[in-house]
């Protein structure tokens, strides 16, 4: 028997030796980004595999011999390599985008490339899928440098906000397939109107600073460039459900035909999200769908996207009063929502925001020659909805009515419910022409013309007393129109190791609105602005994996609707301008990928937040002549072992206004008390933000991630929490005495496990435990200080975020 086993082992030794050979590598695109999900095929064995989230693949147990390896990825040209295998080898692939890639021109026309002298972060579909448990898109971007997010409802479902480098959403330019998404008038981006859009996104690029030329309102803090679903060659069906704290439930179905007849594909998604919210009565009822059909020709692509979102959200946009949060004897002191409170102590059940937004996009990409390609898009967005609210003891004179006399009673005030409507249309064309005459030179000519029309009107739908109000009485109506035209040309020229970059943009904005004229009468007003935004930069390439860069960019930004309608032609706010200086270093290797970026953003006439909100929760702003932001951003990811990695970023900044003055209303004598600062901090601008993600994969298909976010203290206004001389503040807790947000450090745990069973391609299980240590903190707020009784009284409102909460998910892929 011993001799038998010895002979058997001797016979198997050559086989065992040959079985130790392997081929492994990584698949990236021309900008160095990993391509997860790429297909790698060994022609001789007919075996294949797909790349992981890092773009890596591996074949094991191979014998000596000659192999042909083929790498393919949707939208990219197939690449094949031949290898003579005598020992384990590493074979990497760099794939070039082909003519069927919509991203090639439509999206990259407004994006930064690997060597662009711009600070940016790319987020892949796989990264979004890992983070997507049903929270709004800003929460899924919370890991990018210099980003701070907040939620009105406290748990990331419903109305959420995002700031980049301290700049709010009105300064963050958002495009979807190169088409502007920011509201033309308020300039904000309301992702609540597109619930679960993350489930239909292929990738995102987040730029910081002015960045590259783009369509829509100028980017002052940054830009978010979204590309939606692209071609998948095989059919699929995904069913996903998430559920967790605060009654949150998300249901999503994704379907796709794959490539039919070599030319056609259809993809679709249907989603529903419901949540009660952490804050009282901050419920959300959200629905959305996404349908995309495409035709792929030999050198062209035509894609039609239709997507829609509906939201009905109970209003929580005022926050929680400071005296409520500061009183620990109140059981719900951190979740109290006073909106909709009626005289009988009940809450008005329809104190809601109710809005539907439908998007239609037609995208065309044509390869005209080996050197020239064109992309164009037609788009139309229809939005209609209202916010409804209960008003106690409202004066009828404020609604264009005269008091009504009934018998001996004069009705001059009444409880009422009103709806304030917005019915708007946004449509236009975007285009880009890309010319690449040589490997050393590429040129892009692009631009857009967009038109917006918006009807603003209000109805009274209920009154406690007649007051002479007819059913559905319309008490105001005003219309707005906005034409937005831009054209830009951008070029990159490579001379040896140096790449020179230039970008010139002209933008013209014509806005018509209903507002106060010089005589303080409401009338149709006009405002026309012309902007020239040049950008230059250079990149020095040490080698394929290391470069340094520097750039200078100019940006301009027009005031928003509230800035205009709350002023007269004499007091009308000025457009703001920005000079943005950026410099940095980037490196990429198998073990470490990261960079460092320095920025100095010098503003003229910046529209800064005063800390107050208007009656629908929008920030109130004013011009300041001189202000700046300066800082350093660091980000990186290190592969500690094959199964363990650490990603982190941090931003250290100083954000200042020079020669700032603020007035406090003194209600003791009806005067204004001034306060001046030679230099003061800009509101809502923390001097330090940091992010960390420790990720461990104990076995194939699994992930355990420990995610941390730190945000330094922020001021609610621009006074650095100081008060006019001689006017003290009294109180016994920081909520009443401070006009600031304390720093916070929040930690999450995320678990994922993916496996397959029989006919189910993938079963994905996930668990997200947010704020695992149950930290009590506020991520946003507002303040209305004045002087009463010889002292400063702070009327502060805060947005507390949820303590420990969880979401669990199950996904089935067929």
From TrEMBL:
Keywords attached to this entry: Cell outer membrane, Ion transport, Iron, Iron transport, Membrane, Receptor, Signal, TonB box, Transmembrane, Transmembrane beta strand, Transport
Keyword Iron (UniProt): yes
PANTHER family: FERRICHROME IRON RECEPTOR-RELATED, FERRICHROME OUTER MEMBRANE TRANSPORTER_PHAGE RECEPTOR
Signal peptide start-end: 1-19
A single Gene Ontology CC term: cell outer membrane
Species of origin: Mucilaginibacter terrenus
Topology in the lipid bilayer: Multi-pass membrane protein
Name this polypeptide is given: TonB-dependent receptor
Subcellular compartments: Cell outer membrane
Domain TonB-dependent receptor plug: 114-222
GO MF entries: siderophore uptake transmembrane transporter activity
């Amino acid at each position: 028997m011993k001799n038998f086993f010895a002979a058997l082992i001797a016979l198997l030794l050559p086989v065992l030796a040959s079985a130790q050979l392997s081929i492994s590598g990584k698949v990236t695109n021309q900008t160095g980004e990993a391509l997860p999900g790429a297909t790698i095929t060994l022609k001789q064995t007919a075996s294949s595999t797909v790349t992981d989230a890092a773009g890596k693949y591996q074949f094991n147990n191979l014998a000596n011999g000659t192999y042909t390896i083929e790498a393919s990825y949707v939208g990219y040209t197939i690449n094949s390599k031949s290898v003579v295998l005598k020992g384990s080898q590493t074979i990497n692939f760099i794939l070039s985008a082909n003519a069927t890639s919509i991203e090639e021109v439509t999206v990259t026309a407004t994006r930064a490339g690997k060597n662009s002298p711009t600070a940016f972060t790319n987020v892949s579909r796989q990264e979004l899928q890992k983070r997507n448990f049903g929270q709004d898109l800003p929460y899924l971007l919370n890991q990018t440098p210099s980003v701070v997010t907040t939620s009105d409802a406290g748990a990331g479902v419903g109305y959420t906000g995002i700031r980049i480098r301290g700049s709010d959403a009105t300064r963050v330019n958002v495009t979807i397939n190169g088409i502007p998404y920011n509201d033309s008038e308020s300039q904000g981006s309301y992702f609540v109107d597109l619930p679960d859009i993350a489930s239909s996104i292929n990738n995102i690029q987040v730029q910081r600073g002015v960045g590259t030329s783009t369509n829509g309102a100028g980017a002052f803090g940054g830009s978010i460039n979204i590309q939606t679903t692209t071609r998948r060659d095989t059919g699929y069906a995904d069913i996903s459900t998430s559920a967790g704290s605060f009654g949150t439930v998300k249901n999503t179905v994704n379907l796709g035909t794959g490539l039919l007849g070599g030319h056609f594909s259809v993809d679709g998604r249907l989603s529903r999200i419901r949540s009660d919210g952490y804050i009282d009565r901050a419920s959300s009822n959200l629905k959305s769908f996404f349908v995309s059909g495409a035709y792929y020709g030999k050198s062209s692509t035509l894609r039609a996207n239709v997507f829609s979102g509906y939201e009905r959200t109970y209003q929580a946009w005022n926050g929680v009063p400071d005296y409520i949060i500061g009183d620990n004897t109140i059981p719900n002191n951190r979740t109290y929502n006073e909106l909709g409170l009626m005289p009988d102590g009940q809450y008005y059940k329809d104190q809601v925001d109710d809005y539907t937004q439908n998007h239609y996009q037609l995208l065309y990409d044509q390869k005209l020659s080996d050197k020239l390609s064109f992309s164009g898009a037609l788009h139309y967005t229809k939005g209609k909805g209202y916010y409804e609210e209960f008003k106690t003891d409202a004066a009828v004179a404020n609604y264009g009515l005269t008091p009504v006399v009934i018998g001996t009673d004069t009705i001059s005030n009444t409880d009422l419910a009103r709806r304030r409507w917005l019915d708007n249309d946004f449509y236009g064309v975007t285009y880009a022409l890309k010319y690449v005459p040589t490997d050393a030179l590429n040129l892009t000519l692009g631009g857009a013309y967009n038109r917006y029309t918006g009807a603003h009107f209000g109805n009274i739908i209920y009154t406690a007393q007649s007051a002479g109000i007819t059913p559905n009485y319309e008490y105001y109506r005003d219309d707005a129109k906005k034409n937005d035209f831009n054209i830009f040309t951008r070029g990159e020229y490579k001379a040896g190791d140096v790449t020179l970059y230039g970008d010139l943009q002209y933008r013209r904005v014509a806005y018509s609105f209903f507002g106060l004229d010089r005589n303080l009468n409401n009338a149709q007003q006009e405002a026309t602005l012309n902007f020239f935004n040049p950008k230059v930069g250079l990149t020095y390439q040490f080698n394929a994996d290391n470069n340094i860069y520097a750039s200078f960019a100019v940006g301009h930004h027009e005031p928003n609707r509230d800035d205009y309608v709350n002023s007269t032609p004499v007091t009308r706010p000025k457009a703001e301008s920005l000079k943005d200086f950026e410099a940095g270093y980037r490196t990429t290797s198998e073990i470490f990928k990261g960079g460092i970026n320095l920025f100095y953003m010098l503003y003229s006439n910046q529209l800064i937040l005063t800390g107050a909100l208007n009656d629908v929760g929008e920030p109130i702003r004013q011009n300041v002549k001189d202000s700046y932001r300066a800082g350093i951003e660091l980000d990186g990811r290190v592969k500690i072992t094959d199964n363990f990695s650490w990603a982190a970023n941090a931003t250290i900044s100083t954000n200042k206004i020079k020669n700032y003055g603020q007035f406090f209303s003194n209600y003791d004598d009806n005067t204004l008390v001034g306060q001046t600062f030679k230099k003061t901090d800009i509101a809502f601008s923390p001097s330090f933000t940091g992010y960390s993600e420790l990720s461990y994969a104990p076995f194939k298909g699994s992930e355990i991630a420990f995610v941390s976010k730190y945000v330094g203290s922020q001021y609610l206004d621009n006074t650095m929490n100081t008060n006019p001389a001689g006017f003290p503040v009294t109180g016994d807790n920081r909520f009443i005495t401070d006009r600031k947000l304390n720093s916070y450090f929040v930690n999450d745990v995320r678990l994922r496990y993916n496996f397959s069973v029989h006919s189910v391609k993938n079963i994905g299980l996930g668990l997200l435990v947010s704020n695992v240590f149950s930290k009590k903190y506020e991520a946003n707020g507002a303040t209305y200080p004045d002087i009463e009784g010889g002292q400063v009284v702070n009327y502060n409102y805060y947005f507390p975020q949820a303590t420990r909460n969880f979401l669990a998910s199950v996904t089935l892929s067929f």
